[in-house]
Amino acid sequence: MNPCLLIPIYNHPDTIGDVVSGLEPLALPCLVVDDGSDRATRGVLADLEAKHAWVRVERRDRNGGRGAALRTGYLRAAALGHSHAIQLDADGQHATDEVPALIEAARRHPDALVLGAPRFDESAPASRRYGRWISKLWVWIETCSGEIRDPLCGLRAMPLEATLRVLERVPCGDRMDFDPEIAVRLVWSGTPVVNVPTAVRYFEDGVSHFDVWRDNLRMTWLHTRLFLGMLPRSPGLVARRFRGRG
Asked: How many Cβ atoms sit within 10 Å of the Cβ of residue 48?
């Protein structure tokens, strides 16, 4: 196993420095994908790359969305010879001291998709909790299982060979719909799932790029497509579930 850290970023100049500093004890290469950020963020990233030899910044000329940035990161990580991308967000929502547990789970299960299963505290808005339950319900239907505990958590360890094989067939969504779609399609492809409990923090002054109307419409269309895609696959998915119990 040869993992790297992967952080997609779009306009988070105030938090990325602390995230990178918190990851330094892991002694792993870190790939930061700048998805067309503003000048302030580009300046911070340039300073981090100059200061830390283990940090590499991959720049996209224009903002393409979270999914587009992650696809860029997976391809670059694989080209650099990495087997796994340990991804987390740039806004500090994921505590960096939770990352070693994901790495250890990926080492024990190198063929698996390792997902963070959030533990929310009182800082989590009720709307986010309800929205996640709706997404979880849809994903459980689409995979005919409860393998994916949380399809939206950005803290995860991606097995790159399996992930890129899926993305060669279907590129998945460009924005916030990417995370649940790639998880479902990996399950469809036969990739096992390991869930690791992880703390997720919300900040009163946190910057979110989730567009309530457009991204919810994207999610609705995504789950419509995945549900329709599940129907012909359902006999095999159900059979695999029962084989796993045997």
From this structure: 18
Model pLDDT, residue 166: 97
pLDDT at res. 19: 95
3-state secondary structure (DSSP) of residue 224: helix
Per-residue tokens: 37: 């950020």
Give the tens place of pLDDT for each residue, 12-21: 999 999 999 9
The single-letter code of the amino acid at 159 is: P
* Contact assessment for residue 89 and residue 20, using Cβ atoms and an 8 Å cutoff: no
pLDDT of residue 125: 58
CB 150 within 8 Å of CB 115: yes
Can you count the helices (H) and strands (E) in the chain?
A: 8, 7
127 SS3 class: helix
The whole-number pLDDT of residue 193 equals 97
Distance CA 55, CA 179 (A): 24
Report the phi/psi class of residue 99: left, alpha or beta, with left for phi > 0 and alpha for psi in -120 to 50. alpha
Q: How far apart, in whole angstroms, are the C-alpha atoms of residue 54 and residue 26?
A: 11
Distance between CA 32 and CA 5 in Å, rounded? 8
**CB contact set of 20 (below 8 Å; sequence gap of 6+):** 7, 30, 32, 48, 52, 55
Amino acid at 227: F
Parts of the chain with a pLDDT under 50: none
| Tokens encoding 4 | 């790297």
Q: Which residues pair with 120 in a beta bridge?
A: 200
The domains of the chain, with CATH numbers, are 3-245 (3.90.550.10)
Give first-to-last CA distance, the chain, whole Å.
29
pLDDT value of residue 215: 73
